[in-house]
Amino acid sequence: MQNLTILGSTGSIGTSTLDVVSRHPERFQVFALTAYRQVALLFKQCIQFKPRYAVLLDEDASQQLRALLRDAGLTTEVLTGVAALEQVCVAPEVDSVMAAIVGAAGLRPTLAAARAGKKILLANKETLVMAGKIFMDAVRDSGSALLPIDSEHNAIFQSLPRDYNGNAAQHGVRRILLTASGGPFRNTPLADLKNVTPEQACAHPNWSMGQKISVDSASMMNKGLEVIEAHWLFNASADDIQVVVHPQSVIHSLVEYVDGSVIAQLGNPDMRTPIAYGLAFPERIASGVSSLDLFKVATLNFTPPDFERFPCLALAYQALRTAGTAPSLMNAANEIAVAAFLDRKIAFLAIPQLIDTVLNKLPIQAVTCIEDVLEADAQARVAAEKVVRTLTLC
Ligand code: NAD
Ligand code: MG
């Protein structure tokens, strides 16, 4: 029996994880569920999965959940706050942690799980973008198992040799081909991009996801974050990671070897596949995902990325090459920019502008400890909020 903590259980990845878990009650037991403040859904999940703990970030929401659980006669204990997120990751009963909080808020609990040697199912790519070296060192030092859940990185993991140790030359790996759908604005006339709405940005053609990652997909910052994620997971340099725009999202990424072989993982675009893979690794279990109908897919297309249309992708490559706190600054500025766009305070095209301004304004420092990362994150948020005020739509 695998005892699970699911960080961000009310989100897109969290609910897909519980869907897979519910198909295998003999394998998985839920130790803790966590959310920001979605009381009704977290309550429903507690009724179904009877976790030992439920964590909410919001104090009022916690009170409400406590009352609901008491009335329902459940013994689930409700905790509140960031420290509680860490507590339910490091508890000795926990075997595995699904890291599915969105954004920088996922860093502390995910790092705590790594330091505690838990098996980590990593959806929260921002952890690697912000603190890649610190996190990977923690995984190595504690002997954690790290399973990438992001579909592309899961595909790369599946396409690499099982004993891959980060030494590409030793394993004959030439490069990584990271696929991208191109998002909802792949073919939108450039002149129309300045007027696109949050609804249009969140209407992803292939994937159903949370709002933040949907906007990131529309700007292709998501692919930029994923280039940095791949760098840390697979010890690949920026030059060895080629983004390939593949609008059907059927090939989830590929690995090219020195002999010319290219190995890929294919499947329907449904996150339950990488989630089930991570949950059961090294076994395979049913995920509820239907068979890939290649006859229906019929055609697969590939184009190089358009850096002019998607300046966020160029910013991310640049941040990776600059290193130090640059990716943290970029990530924080992006989070503020995306939130401001979703609030209709700034235009879609202001997202890369804002990030660029913040990156040019703030000094880039070396990262020696987690405090360096958190300090850069905080500084970038303050600077980005200032830029939002100057850009605010009237
Ligand atoms: P989501 O917005 O649907 O869900 C986010 C979850 O985090 C919710 O449970 C929410 O309550 C919780 N949360 C939000 N802010 C929080 C905070 N400050 N403190 C604690 N909890 C907080 O997001 P999602 O789409 O499920 O994405 C989650 C993560 O997985 C992101 O890092 C994303 O990049 C990554 N990811 C998602 C997908 C996908 O298909 N959705 C695919 C690949 C990777
Ligand atoms: Mg992805």
Give an overview in words:
By secondary structure, this protein is an alpha/beta fold. It has 3 domains: 2-148, Rossmann fold (3-Layer(aba) Sandwich), CATH 3.40.50; 156-297, no CATH class; 323-389, RNA polymerase sigma factor, region 2, helix turn helix motif (Rna Polymerase Sigma Factor, Chain: A, Orthogonal Bundle), CATH 1.10.1740. 47% of the residues lie in helices and 15% in strands. It has helices at 12-22, 39-49, 59-72, 82-90, 107-115, 125-142, 151-159, 198-202, 211-219, 221-234, 272-280, 294-297, 311-322, 326-342, 350-361, 370-391, and strands at 2-7, 28-35, 53-56, 77-80, 96-99, 119-122, 146-148, 173-180, 241-245, 251-257, 262-266. The chain has a 7-stranded parallel β-sheet with strand order 4-3-2-1-5-6-7, with helices on both faces. A 4-stranded mixed β-sheet has the order 9-8-10-11, with helices on one face. Strand 6, helix 6 and strand 7 (146-148) form a beta-alpha-beta unit. Helix 10 packs parallel to helix 13 (311-322). It is globular. The chain starts with a strand and ends with a helix. The model has no long low-confidence stretch (mean pLDDT 97). The structure holds nicotinamide-adenine-dinucleotide and magnesium ion. Nicotinamide-adenine-dinucleotide (NAD) binds next to helix 1, helix 6 and helix 9.
